Amino acid sequence: MIRLLGILDILSGIMMILLKYFSLDFAWIFVFYLGIKSLIFIKSIVSIIDLVAVFFFILALFGIYNILTLIFAVWIIQKGFFSLLG
Q1: Residue 33 neighbours by CB distance under 10 Å
Q2: How far apart are alpha carbons 18 and 23 in whole angstroms?
Q3: Torsion angle of alpha carbons 26, 20, 30, 23, nearest 10°?
Q4: Percent of the chain having pLDDT more than 70?
Q5: CA-based diameter of the chain, in Å?
Q6: DSSP 8-state code for residue 25
Q7: How many angstroms separate the CA atoms of 53 and 55, rounded?
Q8: From CA 36, how far away is CA 64, in angstroms rounded?
Q9: Mean pLDDT across the stretch 55-68?
Q10: Domain count across the chain
Q11: Which domain holds residue 58?
């Protein structure tokens, strides 16, 4: 199960990066995934950071993309990568 969440995290991060170049309406699925997962594990500081990442993900969906969006995308990708290793 943790590996599945890791794969979905990696895909979410990739979607955040691709939103700078493409309009991807189906990326909302990944926003909901990250938001729900973050709320389930809200007692962890990592989940709170994920909630902030969801905010920047939503901004990216509306065309507001800045360096923090890229930083949060890398955060989510590395988190997913380490989930696959563990």
Answers
A1: 16
A2: 8
A3: -10
A4: 100
A5: 35
A6: G
A7: 5
A8: 22
A9: 95
A10: 1
A11: 2-85
pLDDT at 24: 86
Using DSSP, state whether 1 is helix, strand or coil. Answer: coil
- CA angle (56, 13, 17) in 5-degree steps: 75
Which pTM value belongs to this model? 0.92
Question: Residue 81: which of 17, 3, 22 has the closest Cα?
Answer: 3
Upper half-sphere CA count for residue 33 (Cβ side, 13 Å): 17
Q: What band does 38 get if pLDDT is binned at 50, 70 and 90? A: very high
Give the residue ranges of DSSP H helices in 1-86: 2-18, 28-40, 45-61, 67-85
Q: Are 84 and 7 in contact (CB under 8 A)?
A: yes
